[in-house]
Specification:
Radius of gyration: 19 Å
Largest sheet: 6 strands, parallel
Strand content: 5-15%
Helix content: 40-55%
Number of strands: 6
Amino acid sequence: MHASSSQPLLKAALWDMDGTLVDTEPYWIAAERSLVESYGGMWSHEQAMQLVGQSLMYSAGILQAAGVNLGKREIVDTLSARVIECIRTEVPWRPGARELLDALYEAGVRCALVTMSEGPMAREVVASLPKPYFEFLVTGDTVRRGKPDPEAYLTAVERLRMTDAELALGQCVALEDSVPGVAAAIASGVVTVGIPHQMPLPEDPRRTTWETLEGRGVADLEALVAERAAAGLLAGALLGQAK
């Protein structure tokens, strides 16, 4: 189902990866715990939750503080290698993610992956998909500032505009599971959906919350784009009346 000509068009879906597209957080947590314990430290679930959705370099600093006597780059490479090894054994897809991806692809809606994981891991996940769903990837090693900074999402929008100069922020929907990821998406100005997974998301009227992607389709994302446009028209009308 496509938006009618009277509705703003959904043009792009911007996907977070870890926790949204794939359930790789348990892989990351196991790798973190193993690394910290190899240096004689302890790694709690609470500590692991602090890293969900954060940039890998930020996370590496936290692991150094937990006793890992390695440089940040070496920590990132070590963790990434362990998680990639797990992904090659099994890609743990999140419920409804592949079905929504396929529906968007069939409807001609552009998709981009916006993740704080680095290129090699993101490409490993994308390579396991049966179709070229993602037009491009924005990864943690291609931006200067990681989530919760909006740079990654703004970079994705900029790349989309290279072939569609009229694309508006309100025609793009971000799908995110973590607090830093949701904050980055909201700050960028795109329509934002939070799908909480490892940890709850605080109440925020600036985003929509879905418990799962299961059963969600293109029409659901189109409705969010239409709601954003309607809210903008209402705000504009009220501003005009106030003048």
